[in-house]
Structures are given as structure tokens and as C-alpha cells.
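Page 42, continued from yesterday. The earlier attempt failed because a stray header line got pasted into the input along with the sequence. Redoing it now with the clean sequence only.
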Amino acid sequence: MNRFLSTLINWVLILGIGLSLGGCVSTRLSVASASPWQVVEINTDANPLDISFVDQNHGFLIGTNRLIRETNDGGKSWDKRSLDIPSEENFRLISIDFFGDEGWIAGQPGLVLHSRDAGQTWTRLALGNKLPGEPYLIKTLATDSAELATTAGAVYVTTDGGQNWEGKIEEASGGIRDIRRGSNGEYVSVSSLGNFYATLDPGQSSWQPHQRASSKRVQTMGYKPDGSLWMISRGAEIRFADYFEAQEDSWGKPIIPIVNGYNYLDLAWDPKGTIWAAGGNGTLLFSKDGGDSWESDPVGDVQPSNLLRILFNASDEQEKISGFVLGERGTLLRWAG
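This time it went through. C-alpha cells are written below.
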């Protein structure tokens, strides 16, 4: 009898612990009844990595394996393009940016392209052999002017169409896994191991290192619409910096919307203020209340691909949102509203 009671008590304790743990995080979110996204076929196995538009309808998509596509209908369809770069090199086109007809592409290994005619023609620029790291992020500033960041955390600027590049910082921050640029020219980078991050504000001559918010390694970081930082860490953990404290090291409590064995890979805000999170195996979540509650997007949920990046065209008017989700093996979702 005592043995029976002891066994029964053990089972009750195990069940109680299981129920209490199950209430900490959700392993499955409700799927929304409708989606603002639609699948766009671009007929490639390459990974799209970036998109930029010349105007509301005309834009370019780039990615791995020399991938480049052009659209003239706002991204509903994409036509193949080619670049005059050596065919024996398997270039990874990683960053593209337009300011009117002025456009730049950064790629790896050691590739920077410049266009003055809305992408009709592209000129390859010589970077030399002393560039620390590989080109990673490029931003068009004005006619013949651009800013280039590398995988070593070096930042350069040109004002003569890429003939000469001037370093903006005294020394690079070391190997990075991701780097983002804010709307005011500030940068945040994540170290290659994800064990710390660094910031670079306009006018600073060196990166400022910061400790990560928890013991979990940082996956990626970026800027919220109000200019404060967000952080994604391993274990599908999201954190927001406390903007009102004006301290980048002041982080809120972790948000873990769903535990499905996959990490989040990017975070973005659409112009209406909804937060979108993308990740492995078709993970595409959204929150309309600042991250307190989340739903799963039905179109993203069925994509057999890791979703790598979410982009919204900040230059568009509020009433006409332009947005894309980029995923592996040619996966592309377009905002349909």
C-alpha cells in the first residue's frame, strides 16, 4: 500500500511539473486565418539575400550563385539579368542599394559594382588587396557617394564613384556574423561567435563593445522604428532595448513566442507597426501588440525553407507597403496586403 501511494505521488509530481513547464512557453501558436504575403516564383535554387528599388515598380533582387533578377511591376514578377563578372568565380551578391538612379552592389569575394543608370549597366571597381574582410553591406549616400562595411567591421566611404575609399574608423572590430546600419548612419555588429556586440555612432572613430543580454549567443541585431535596438539570441529568444533609458545595454525581458527547435533569423516592423519574425523551417510570426502575443502566418508556415530576411521599403508611403521575405532555395514572399 505504501509503495502504491509513493508511486502515485511521484506520478502526480511529474504531471504537475510537466504542466507547469508547459505553461512557460508555447510550443505551437495559432495560425492566422489570412496572410498579407504571397509566394513569388523566381525559378532558382540560389538564396536571395537582398532587394532594392529604383522607384515604386523598378527594382533588383540579388543573392548567392551570382543571382540577380529585375522587376518592373513592384516585385510581382522577376526577369533574369546577368553581370559582366568572371564566370569562373561563384560570387555571392549580398547587398544592394539604390538612391534614385544611383546604385551599388557589394558581393563576395571582393566585389563592388556601381551603376549610374538605374541598373542598366554596372561597373566593377577595384578594391585592392588591403581591404580588411569581405564586402558585406553597402549604402548609397548621393551621386557617386556610398558607404561600405566589411566582415571585419571596417567602414569606408567614397565620394568619387568608388575610385577612392576613405576609412571612417581607426581600426576594425574583428570578425562579424552580421552588421546593420540605422537610418541616421549608426551601425550595430554581432561578433562572429555571437559572444558580444558592438555599436558605432556617427562621428565615433572606433567600435564600442557591449556584453550580450544573456548567456545565449547572439544571432543577429538591428534597429526598431524608434531607433532603439532589438536582439535575437540562440534558443529563439527576442529582446528589445529600453529606449527610454537611452542605454543600449539596458534590455527588457526575453520574449520566446514559440519553441519549435528552430532559431529566428530576422526581425522587422511593417509600416503599420506589426512586428514580423522569420526563422528556420518556414517560421514566420507576427505580433500586433509590441511582442506580448504572437500568431503564425499561414503562408510562411507551409514554406519548406529557412526564411532568412524580412525587408520593408521604408521610402514607400504608408498606404502602399512594399515588403518581401527572403528564404533559401529561391523562396520569395511578396507583401500583398
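Notes: Confidence is low (pLDDT under 50) at residues 1-5, 7-26.
Reminder to self: strip header lines before submitting.
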